[in-house]
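Got a spare moment? Tell me how you read both lines of this record:
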Amino acid sequence: MINVRTARMLADYKNWADQRLFDSLAALPAGEVSKDRVSVFKNMIGTLNHIYVVDCIWQAHLEGRGHGFKTSHDLLHADLAELRRAQREIDHWYCNWSESQTETSLDKPVEFTFVSGESGTMSAGAILMHVVNHASYHRGWVIQMYFEIPAMPPVTDLPVYLRETQPTAFKSLHAPAVEPTCAVQFSSATSVLPDRYR
């Protein structure tokens, strides 16, 4: 399903994308990350905590231990800097875990229990893909909240990660250079969105 090289790349990408988002969030005006918004998790910090809790739950599954969570909605870290440190720590765990895997271990079935009480089985590699995909999905929720500020969100697309971290391996289409359009705040953020967001 997934090979070692891809597992390492996905774990590194998640770490990069998470930290790029935290860099951007730290530059927002005071109070924006905890401001109530229309969202299941109420605000940016709540959504980020959900990502972190789910990362912890699946880490426990991969380690074959219990995690103690009854819900994935717990607000463990209300402070952005504290949450950032915790997220960096677990992201590094996933990077280190991926580094230690083999093709065989990535295909190994892992039995677990969802917080709902239902049981399940997935390969270790599929679990990693879920963790990475889940975080990307909910980072998108946080990105959407930027436009209520309004502010330009960071770009955390996989091709941007590859271009920045593996420039010799990344094949450019030699598109003409364009002036960067991102800034912390605009009167109408949607009017300056790169085409990929339209």
About this structure: The CA atoms of residues 2 and 125 lie 6 Å apart. The chain is about 50% helix and 5% strand. Confidence is low (pLDDT under 50) at residues 180-193.
